[in-house]
């Protein structure tokens, strides 16, 4: 009778620990999914930054910045100014 009681109590303890471990395992799975998604986002961001780094080294980018920020124009470009209406 005593051995049966010990075995039964061990079975209960093992069952409780097993359910606890399953709960912890599920939490780790959710965490892994979140980290995987975050890693994919960061990899895409790194690719986007690499593309932008390449673009800022092109003549097209330099021309764009010169026009927007410095007001420069191409030598063959004609600027039309609106007539003053007074």
Structure description:
The protein has helices at residues 2-55, 59-70. With 86 residues, the chain is mainly α. It has a domain at 18-70. The longest helix is centred in the first third of the chain and has 54 residues, at 2-55. The protein has 2 helices and no strands.
In short:
The chain is mainly alpha-helical and 86 residues long.
Quick tags:
0% strand; rod-shaped; 86 residues; mainly alpha
Write the layout of secondary structure elements.
Layout: H1 2-55, H2 59-70
Number of helices: 2
Give me the count of strands.
0
- Structural class by secondary-structure content: mainly alpha
Share in β-strands: under 5%
Low-pLDDT parts are none
How far apart the termini lie comes to 111 Å
Helix-strand sequence: HH
Main sheet, how many strands, which sense, barrel? none
Molecular shape: rod-shaped
Determine Rg (CA atoms, Å). 34 Å
Instruction: State mean pLDDT (0 to 100 scale).
Output: 89
Looking at the chains present, what oligomeric state does this protein adopt?
A: single chain
Amount of helix: over 70%
